[in-house]
């Protein structure tokens, strides 16, 4: 199925990125647009896929992300942790008539909580396969729903989602703080002060309101509020993600550079160094590793 | 100014409630509608007030709430805590030509945080004046922005806002959880389990996402998600509000009964008993106490 090369698609809720790779896994062409799964009408996936092939070539498709969710094209059931690349490749959801396959997401369950991911797993295994991440490490993947994944022997043994990106977006679009949250977030003293406050572990619902009061009472400049709020949410996120992690474990921040730099700064405030890995590079490495595993 | 009776208005962001009281403070008539300050166009307050007088009588007006904010009619500067009824009455913002006055809000500042309230202060002092609340107590006032106020000798010495109501509203209208948050919230095992989880003090951003994963993985019924989420936010709220409070202090929950009952249940889960006070009754008592103070 893969001998002629493939098109790999990272198909999320609001965006999609597709890459044509030749039989050696070398990137030949790509497209990025805002045709996430929520923009595809009911029954519209065959047409959406035909459009990808028109633009990138008539090749087999290997897809990951929300395309495999209950709101996507074909639901690809989650694979339970602990899981590695072999479990992932053994549970592809194949759509033979379309020469397409969807990578399953991962699930995590213990006595006290449940968690799911879709799309990040390809990047996690790709980063290990490409030597960008140690097989034993703690990986943070910021985004709408940030994932903290524990890797052991190259397998994901557990992970935790923190919806930092979604909450910041809700607050800036719809909340009583929205007028102040459209300024761009910069890593300066306000951001760092927010991180320190967030790491104290008090409820975000009270710390967020205090931002409003601080501006009204002249304690904080309005133009600093966005950076402080971002720092606050990321500080609480980092406190949660580090949790009971081994203090010596390598922490890797993987994803889009405009987000990873914020988390690196927050970890620095927590006294931890972290390595940045580009999420797109890890995704392509993960697809190549999956293709090898299947072949 | 007050000898003929008055109209008292609790004028909030999205609603207003107005009451005609006779010279003895007895309630004669009232109106409640959705003409909160955000529904009044620029320059529209004189007309909005004329409308209140048309419906309730041509009497002096004493108003509290967001009407005194920078988005209201006339900004009534905050009075700093500690503050009691005398400070409030000494700092009314009078609009003589309109025979109207606006009650100031309260502010709180210490080295680590800032806070503000508008409207709840009338209820707090009213509850004490009417003997509904002990002069030394911890009062919780649930709403869009829940207030935890510490009363000492009948004065507010400090308070803290927790934006539980606003966050629940944002989540049910706009978030990835919204499909499950329109069910009505009931005090049952799901609510109580949410309270216990919220009281553990982990970041709400991670516990909220776990609700989604729990439903997707069959760990929790979709119809329980709203009650669990409400319990989670209120549990985190109660943990914050009790904070370093004297374990023997009386806790009073004041406000609308549909909200106070949730907080009473959450406090019960925390091993604390609490007394419910009707917020409207406290507001009217506060207005009467203010009128006496001014006379």
UniProtKB/TrEMBL annotation, chains A, B:
It comes from the Bacteria. InterPro entries: DGOK (IPR007729), DGOK_C (IPR042257), DGOK_N (IPR042258). Gene3D superfamilies: 2-keto-3-deoxy-galactonokinase, C-terminal domain, 2-keto-3-deoxy-galactonokinase, substrate binding domain. It holds the Pfam family DGOK. This is 2-dehydro-3-deoxygalactonokinase.
